[in-house]
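In this section we walk through a basic example: taking a raw amino acid sequence and producing a predicted 3D structure, encoded as C-alpha cells. The instruction is simple. Fold the sequence below.
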Amino acid sequence: MRWVLGKEDGIPHSIPMREGVLPYLSSNEVNYLAFSLATAEYHDELYGHIQETQEKYAEGEMIAYLNSKGQNNVRKWNPERNGVPQGEKGFPVQVFIRNKIHHPENTTMRASSYSPDELKQSIDAMIAILKRP
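The resulting C-alpha cell sequence is shown next.
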C-alpha cells in the first residue's frame, strides 16, 4: 500500500493511497486524494486510462461507453473541421472537458467552459467507473 501526506485541520498526516485508481504513482492523483485538488491533468489521466483499459479510442466509442455507465449527454459541443462548425451535439461532461482541454483552436466553443464543480464531478464519476468491477 502506498501512503501520501495529507492535511486535516491544517495538521499534516499520512493517508493510504488505496483509494487511487491509476496503476502508477501520479502526482495528480496524490494531489486529488490528499488535497481534493481537481486538475485538468488528472482528468486527462483518468480519461486516458479508461480509453486504454476499455479499448475505447474513438470519441463515439467513449461516448457510448460513458453513456452505458450512466453518464448522460448533458453538455453541448460543436466540433470544427478547418474552422467550420459541424453542428452542436450533446456529450457526457467527461468528453466535453476532454475536448475543451485538447481543442483550444475551436473558436466556436471558446466562450463555453466548465466550472471547477463540473471538473470535480467528472473526475469523481470516472473514479467510480474505474472502481466498478
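Looking at the output, two observations stand out. The helical segments are 27-35, 40-54, 59-68, 93-102, 116-131. The longest strand covers residues 3-8. In the next section we compare this with other chains.
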